[in-house]
Amino acid sequence: VLLNIIEDELPIGQRGWLAVMTKFNKRAIESGRPERKQTSLETKFKQLVKTTKPTGNGVCPPEIKRAHHINSLINERAGTCDLGDSDFNDADGGRTGPSSDDDSLPQPEPRVAVARSARNEAPPPHRNAHGTAMTGLLNSLSNAFDPAVQRARDEDRASRSLANTQLLTLSQQLRDSQATNKSLRGQLFDLRNCMYEAHRTADRAEMHLKMMCAAPGPAHPVRSMYHNLPKHKHQSYRWFVDGGESRAWLSDDDAEFQQGIFEPNEGGSLEGFGNYCLMTFWA
């Protein structure tokens, strides 16, 4: 009942809600229900309007849908009329059909709606947002198909590609340099080890030489193993083919030693060559 009365009256100011209260209380008395105050009816309607619609697959109650619809009608009516004060008569301009309670309501003086340019200067906010979005979209499209913008974008892409290639090349060179440096460090380590080994070998040889030079000589001179041999004699050994041997000491003046025992005979053969062999040792 309340929504029917509000839809008929479409109240904007205090007089509109006063008319709603009058009609509602009249019907409440006829139905044997308690009367309500104006603020109570207005608060009840605003609670229905503030109730949000369920999201997802939820079902919105019919009274909530109708309250939102009536509120949109009230807002639409408020946007087309000039409100002088809060006592604007809502009953004359907001009715959609005849009412049976017109005789009981006081008839206010008619007011003339005055068109003001201030209401036409600024479009609704949602239109501004839509227009701004369309303008931004057109600007984006024009910038996307602009040859100068495309050329700049291609140059920027080529520059980034070249920079990436150079970065990869420098990274590979750095890795190669690090590998070469590591190899050279290994070779240097090996060379140092070889140098240390050579130094140790030289030190040992030098120490050995010093020890040999510092060692004392023998107490008695070492005699030759042939000290008992006659001087200026030559020890000669003869081995015979048939077996046996002979040993003799020969001097430098010995005719046999001077001429040799293997001088050829008159016939050209060596005397005694087949019979024995000679070995001479110098004293």
Automatic annotation (TrEMBL):
Please indicate which superkingdom the organism of origin belongs to: Eukaryota
- Segments forming domain DUF6818: 11-86
Check the record and name the Pfam families matching this protein: DUF6818 (PF20681)
Q: Where is this region: Disordered?
A: 84-109
> InterPro entries, from UniProt?
DUF6818 (IPR049203)
Enumerate the PANTHER family for this protein.
MYB-LIKE DOMAIN-CONTAINING PROTEIN (PTHR34409:SF1), SET DOMAIN-CONTAINING PROTEIN (PTHR34409)
What protein name does the entry list?
DUF6818 domain-containing protein
